[in-house]
Specification:
CATH topology of the largest domain: Monooxygenase
Pfam family, one: Exo70_N
Largest sheet: none
Number of domains: 4
GO cellular component, one term: exocyst
Function: Component of the exocyst complex.
Protein name: Exocyst subunit Exo70 family protein
Family: Belongs to the EXO70 family.
Helix content: over 70%
Number of strands: 0
CATH class of the largest domain: Mainly Alpha
CATH architecture of the largest domain: Up-down Bundle
Strand content: under 5%
Order of helices and strands: HHHHHHHHHHHHHHHHHHHHHHH
Length: 637
């Protein structure tokens, strides 16, 4: 069966192959026909393109001509518009800037735009003549702008009245009318500092609406190559305004000789004013000048740093010259506190001075301020040393006859107490020269040395008294005054409890020495040693006579002591009562004992009051009059 099927399959395949060959022959025929048709189209299109080429050339030429005409018309319009702009700008330039400065500056910008236009379109035949005309107008405009700048700077560079400056100060620093009449601007008060947050308002030196116009003018002048004219006009105008403002305030240039010739009260007032003026000058005037300088020359290619340095140079020199003169003048103790005030204000203002005078051109200003600060610190430190030496070597012959607190003691103690109002300033000052040691320990060392110098001097002065009792009373009073003053001030924290306790013992030692020296003789009179017993005295006229002499001697000595020591003074009430009590505790028991033991020997005499003139109660009462500084006769009256 398989063998029978094979012939049929072969026949089928043969038929299909025949059909495929027939189809291929027909397809080839179709292809040849299509190629022939397309070849015919190509020939016809080539002929059509050749026929249309002249028309295309003419159309392109027409289009190009139209484009050229459009460009020419646009160029003509641009040129005509430039001519129109130039005509209007010229009219504004000829009118000048005074009436309408903003419009004038706009016209200048328009002319500059016209120059740029023709510079970039030099193929126009008339461009050279137009450029010449416009540049001439710009040259005229520059001259007029310069004149306008000069006029504006003159108009708005007037000195500021002191009252306007005072209104910009914190309320606590504004002078009252009386202050202004007395010294021109109020005094710097160290103790009132810090009572309120200090708010300073920078004064308006030039109206804000004018500043943008000045900025535009400065820009125009610099772009026109007139930097030097702009520089000079601004510098001279603002320098004069600043100097006049300071002069109206009361700032004056004083030399070392001028300072040296002044009476202390006048100099002290001027220093107080200078401190006030420095704050006004730096925080208000110089800060204001820096502000307007930055605004007027903002974005301008201009050396404003040098300009600002030059316009402020003379004013700053005048301000610093007074501080320098005081620092270099002859040192004296009373100058220490004003030197500290001056040093303090310079330290306070230094950061603002560094900010206002930033940049290399103002280096000299910053260094001058820093140099003055250091010179004031140096002079203050040297004055400290001078004061310490002056206290120890004070050779005044003044003797306080009543043994009270010596003027030197009160002066030095008040001086030291006042120093502690300047603790923070003093610590800064010490660190200027010795940053390796704690400022507080340096302050303690200085204070200790001053107190020791005072004590040494008092020891020397005590030797001027002829009465040893008064010597010890004097030392007791003065050392007690030192201790009491330290305990009641901030000095106690610096000197410490050890210093206080040590000097309290010195007070007690002097009190004991006074008691021993002043009362030893009278107590010896009341001593029973050598006087015998009462039995012996009753049968011995000599012994009775001795007792009478003892009573008479007591009366005389006590009256002398009362007459003398009632004129002496122990100014501290607590110490005075304590000393009286100490005397009474040794005198009254001895006197009572003496009267009790020997009084009967004189009571039977014709005139017993001649011997027992004072009862113990009377003696006690009279002791209450000691150390009051009043004469006994006055007390009796």
């Amino acid at each position: 069966m398989a063998v029978g099927t094979l012939p049929r399959t072969m026949d089928a395949l043969s038929r299909r192959a025949t059909m495929l060959r027939d189809s291929l022959r027909r397809s080839q025929g179709n292809t040849d026909g299509m190629v022939a048709i397309l070849g015919s189209f190509d020939h016809r299109l080539s002929a059509l393109e050749a026929a249309m080429r002249p028309t295309q050339v003419r159309t392109h030429a027409i289009r190009t001509a139209h484009e050229n005409i459009d460009r020419t018309i646009k160029a003509a319009d641009s040129i005509l518009s430039q001519f129109d702009l130039a005509r209007r700008a010229e009219a504004a330039i000829l009118r000048g800037p005074h009436e309408d400065l903003e419009s004038y500056l706009e016209a200048v910008e328009v002319l500059k735009g016209i120059v740029r236009f023709f510079n970039s379109n030099k193929n126009f035949k008339s461009s050279d003549s137009v450029l010449t005309h416009v540049n001439n107008l710009l040259a005229k405009s520059t001259m007029k702008i310069e004149e306008e700048f000069k006029q504006l700077m003159s108009t708005y560079s007037k000195p500021i009245e002191p009252d306007r400056l005072f209104d910009c100060l914190p309320k606590s620093m504004r002078p009252t009318k009386g202050d202004q009449e007395a010294d021109g601007g109020g005094r710097s008060d160290h103790q009132s500092k810090g009572l309120e947050t200090a708010i300073y308002r920078t004064p308006t030196l030039i109206p804000p609406r004018i500043l943008p116009l000045m900025n535009d003018i400065a820009q125009q002048l610099v772009q026109a190559g007139n930097q030097q004219s702009c520089y000079k006009i601004y510098r001279d105008s603002r320098a004069l305004a600043l100097e006049m403002s300071l002069r109206k305030l009361g700032v004056e240039k004083l030399s070392k000789d001028d300072v040296q010739k002044m009476q202390w009260e006048a100099l002290e007032a001027k220093i107080g004013n200078w401190i006030h003026f420095m704050r006004i000058a730096v925080k208000l005037l110089l800060a204001g000048e820096r502000k307007i300088c930055d605004q007027i020359f903002d974005g301008v290619n201009f050396n404003k740093g040098h300009c600002f340095a030059e316009l402020t140079a003379n004013s700053v020199l005048t301000l610093f010259s007074f501080g320098d003169a005081v620092a270099k003048s002859k040192r004296s103790p009373e100058k220490l506190f004003v030197l500290l005030d001056m040093y303090e204000v310079m330290r306070e203002l230094q950061p603002e001075i560094d900010e206002i005078f930033e940049g290399k051109p103002c280096t000299e200003m910053r260094e001058a301020a820093s140099s003055l600060t250091k010179r004031l610190a140096q002079t203050a430190q040297e004055t400290f040393t001078d004061f310490e030496e002056a206290v120890e070597k004070d050779a005044s012959k003044t003797i306080v006859q009543d043994g009270t607190v010596h003027p030197l003691t009160s002066y030095v103690i008040n001086y030291v107490k006042f120093l502690f109002d300047y603790q923070s300033t003093l610590k800064l000052l010490f660190l200027e020269f010795d940053s390796g040691t704690e400022a507080e320990s340096q302050l303690a060392a200085v204070t200790t040395r001053i107190m020791q110098a005072l004590q040494n001097n008092l020891d020397g002065k005590s030797k001027q008294y002829k009465d040893p009792a008064l010597t010890y009373l004097f030392l007791m009073n003065n050392v007690h005054y030192m201790v009491r003053s330290v305990r009641r001030s901030e000095a106690k924290d610096i000197l410490g409890d050890d210093w206080i306790q040590r000097h309290r013992r010195i007070v007690q030692q002097n009190a004991n020495q006074y008691k021993r020296v002043a009362w030893a003789k009278i107590l010896q009179t009341l001593s029973v040693q050598g006087a015998g017993s009462s039995g012996d005295l009753s049968s011995s006229g000599v012994s009775r006579a001795m007792i009478k002499e003892r009573f008479k001697s007591f009366n005389m000595q006590f009256e002398e002591l009362h007459a003398k020591q009632s004129q002496w003074i122990v100014p501290d009430q607590e110490l005075r009562e304590s000393l009286r009590l100490a005397v009474a505790e040794v005198l009254l028991p001895a006197y009572r004992s003496f009267i009790k033991r020997f009084g009967n020997l004189v009571e039977n005499n014709k005139n017993p009051q001649k011997y027992v003139r004072y009862s113990p109660e009377a003696v006690d009462q009279l002791l209450g009059q000691f150390f009051e500084g009043q004469q006994w006769a006055e007390q009796k009256r």
